[in-house]
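Purpose: get a first structural picture of the assembly so the mutagenesis plan has something to point at.
Setup: two entries, given in the order below. No constraints added.
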Amino acid sequence: MADWKIPQLNQEKCVVCGICVDVCPQGVLELGTDGLVFARPQDCTYCGACEESCPHDAVVCSYEIGWA
Amino acid sequence: MKIDYAEIGLFRDLPDEVLAEVIECAQVKHMDADAPVIWAGDECEAVYFILAGRVDISRLSAQGREQVLERLGPGEAFNLVPVFQRNPLNPADAKTVGPAELLCIERKEFLRLMGCHPQLTRALAAYLAGRLSNMVDLAERLALFPVRQRLAAFLINQADAVGKDAAQQWTQEDIARRLGTVRDVVGRALRRFEQEGLIRFQRQRIQLLDRERLQSLADGRE
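Result (structure tokens, whole complex):
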């Protein structure tokens, strides 16, 4: 599962507000003692909810664009 | 690494002896990812040619909003315009997207080379004419086209480039900087495209589903 990507987290921008933890439909994110962590990365469906909810642009999803 | 200088558009039709002289004046720079090459407003010291990798050419507003004017790839050149100006200042920021290799020629040397070799000056004029045409297209899109139209055109261009070019990864922020808008607007527009059946999000891919309707949107027909 080498190419199983998860969204990128920018720790410098993250203020640990926890909004993304609440919106993630798979419960992938958790607030740990060192800040936000992808606790269950294997459950991430890359839906983008964390990115859309983050008011500080700390979570970023990237995409290739192509024809189906 | 062996460098094929003929891959640089501006040098392609130069006679061998002129190309040899140009290369003698040039330096190769190895750049890390996301590394600034030049800043807008600084004195123009050199012109640059991309040997490998990509470079974003952008301007930043006083409010901190970035507009990417062009994403340039191998064979293309930047910071050429100030070579001709009396008060030569870099017109825009340039930053590498991933690791990149650049060929760099000092402005004074480049001016000297142009003085000696009219072929180089003609090639430069033709290259700049093409770039000016791209800039006029961009100005038209930013001034006249709504975000949905610009986004549809952008998605088609990127999808059509797959195969001709190395695959690129785009974040919504990247797309927003290209379209002259902000991430939230791009996110909403992409979700609406998805609801309308124009695209599909499939993990790290945005798949385009309906060329006809996307093209119609890009052309401003709907």
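Chain A touches chain B at residues 5, 45-48, 51-52, 57, 60-68 (CB under 8 Å).
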